[in-house]
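Look over both lines:
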Amino acid sequence: MTHNHNHTHNGERGLYFAAAITLGYAAIEAGTGWWANSLALLSDAGHMLADTSALLIAALGAWLAQRAPDARHSYGLGRAEFIAALINGLLMLVVVSLVAIHAVERLQQPLAVKGEAVSVVAFIGLLLNVLVLYLLGHGANDLNRRAAALHVMSDLLASIAALLSGLIIVFTGWTLIDPLLSLLIVAFILYSALRLLREALHGLMEGVPLGLSLNAIGNKMAARPGVLSVHDLHIWSLSSRHLALSAHIVLEELSHWDTVLADQRILLQQHYGIDHITLQPETTTRQVHFTR
């Protein structure tokens, strides 16, 4: 437990450090993008500002998720990371909408772009985004941190787009590449953001964790020795790393319950990663869903 606790604190410090780096460079990019008339650079700065919010929201979600259960929240606050991921996903939709609107405006009314300045600043931004992703990669791999990493990954792609835009403008003078590359990045970010929102909402609605099959697990449980059937089976997420299951187990003999319980726990923990298990033994069948 001590190792996990320290690991979580290290992950939080990485989020705060990454947020500080991102915020500082967002200001530099915004100023340069305004001076150079580069939409790609301004959109990259907008991404980095959104990244700062995302990283701080992720840090708050991680802090809340590690709080111990109490009388008011008997399961703890693990769902906070789903809420943080949901907020970050919605924030991404706002960012991509604004960038798309400005990109369309630039396609209709192109502006002169200072390609050299764009290229230099975008290259530095690219290096910083790689550093931030490295920091995020050394924390827990949960939905909350993945949401923050999505922001940074989208910004890394925007930095690449800004760099390419600057270089193409320097060598060809084709300024339309700036909004066109911005729209390309918007499409990718939109797809990733919608997937993130789907997963966050699924967790908040207590859906069966993605990647697990209720029917398959129920049939496996019912096929174990000493079990006649399983019903009232429910599987949900306490957090993105902790899964819960409850079920009624119909037994051949009630006296075998201790053995059956131990066997079921081993099955669920080792094969499906479910660590919060509540099982109720029965000797009569009612509305049987899963049978041998």
Notes: The longest helix spans residues 2-36. The domain at 2-204 is CATH 1.20.1510.10 (Alpha-lytic protease prodomain-like). Helices lie at 2-36, 39-65, 80-108, 115-137, 143-172, 177-204, 214-222, 257-272. DSSP finds eight helices and four strands in the chain.
